[in-house]
Design brief:
Oligomer: single chain
CATH architecture of the largest domain: 4-Layer Sandwich
Helix content: 25-40%
Strand order of the largest sheet: 6-5-4-3-12-13
Number of strands: 13
Shape: elongated
Order of helices and strands: HEEHEHEHEHEEEHHHEEEHEE
Number of helices: 9
Number of domains: 2
Structural class: alpha/beta
């Protein structure tokens, strides 16, 4: 129709490619010319038009409508449990790490040491959150930093790869994985907020760089979260720093920092005086918390800066098992800091694998 403009979806439907969301337009051509209607119609001059379309089946890709649908379902499905919040009454900070959960990872006991999938990961997560809340309740904690963004999701694409494209053994479609992950994050934040105000801190990681960022932005704007009790840092900087009393703490995934010193941990120790110069001058104690290696390390103290590698509650998948990366103690960790005296307690929450029937 002259003067009428068509969207690619409309073009596909008009040419018989339906439903249009299953097809991608490769090429579309249109042409027009003048013709005669013939003697029976008085040889009138008319404009004739023709269009051709080449299309190919669409692969399993993430579309804007997919994202909108996931958000619509999350907005209606999640119900916030009732909570009564006590007033802060102490001088303690709790830093809660559930690092490298790898939600969606698939491990089979037949070729790994234990089973692991999204259902097991969610149970592990819930058990850890419950135990942390029990340990912190009534302790006089006035602030909680929550770190869960170190490879929280196992994959980052609809084709089940990491951000860089490394294939992963994954047991669940990306839409369901995202919905479950967001619900788990909200469950944990609401439970921790019953103890003290919580700040969830985003740190970029190599398995789920984009998916986790979207999830954190989603949680930060979710109506079920009390903004007076929960804040979310979605700044994209690779490393974050917080000063609590006399203690400066840095947070990073720990996979990208250059190895400029005698060890990777030593390289991380040299960054706070540069990147957090103003806070560094106010601190008596300084620590840097990193993840990524799935095992606990606190072997470097450089000029008073302690660098900790945080443990992981995840299981070893086939690649790690075949490569010999096995035996790490599966656990989550929380660290309690006194406003004046610095670190006063480390809480370990071990994961006990289920025994086979």
């Amino acid at each position: 129709m002259r003067g009428r403009y068509y969207t690619p979806e409309e073009i596909l439907v008009l040419h018989g490619f339906s439903p249009p969301e299953l097809w991608d337009v490769i090429e579309c051509k249109s042409s027009a010319w003048n013709g005669m209607t013939g003697k029976g119609r008085r040889n009138a001059l008319v404009e004739l038009r023709q269009s051709t379309v080449r299309a190919k089946p669409r692969k399993n890709e993430l579309t804007l409508e997919d994202v909108k649908q996931v958000f619509r379902e999350l907005a209606t499905e999640y119900e916030r449990p009732p909570m009564e919040y006590p007033a802060p009454n102490g001088n303690l900070l709790a830093v809660v790490h559930i690092a490298d959960l790898h939600l969606g990872k698939l491990c089979w006991r037949g070729d790994t040491e234990t089973d692991y999938d999204h259902k097991i990961a969610r149970k592990v997560w819930n058990d850890i959150v419950t135990q942390v809340c029990r340990d912190l309740h009534g302790r006089g904690v006035e602030q909680i930093y929550f770190l869960a963004t170190n490879d929280f999701f196992n994959s980052d694409t609809p084709t089940k790869t990491t951000t860089a494209g490394t294939p992963q053994d994954t047991d669940i479609r990306w839409q369901k994985l995202y919905k479950i992950g967001v619900a788990m994050l909200m469950d944990a934040l609401i439970a921790l907020a019953d103890i003290a105000p919580v700040e969830a801190i985003y740190t970029a990681s190599n398995h789920d760089l984009t998916t986790m960022y979207h999830a954190m932005c989603h949680v930060s704007d979710c109506r079920q979260i009390d903004p007076g009790r929960v804040t979310v840092d979605t700044d994209a900087h690779a490393r974050k720093y917080r000063l609590y009393g006399n203690t400066l703490i840095g947070f990073t995934h720990g996979d990208t920092e250059r190895k400029q010193a005698r060890s990777a941990l030593g390289a991380l120790a040299g960054l706070p005086p540069i990147e957090a110069r103003a806070l560094w001058g106010q601190a008596r104690y300084c620590e840097v918390h990193a993840a990524h290696l799935h095992c606990e390390q606190a072997t470097d103290e450089v000029n008073g800066v302690i660098v900790r590698r945080i443990s992981s509650p995840t299981a070893s998948d086939t690649w790690h098992t075949d490569s010999g990366y096995v035996g790490a103690v599966r656990k989550a960790q929380a660290f309690v800091y006194h406003r004046q005296y610095g670190l006063v307690q480390t809480i370990n929450i071990p994961v006990v694998p289920e025994t086979p029937a």
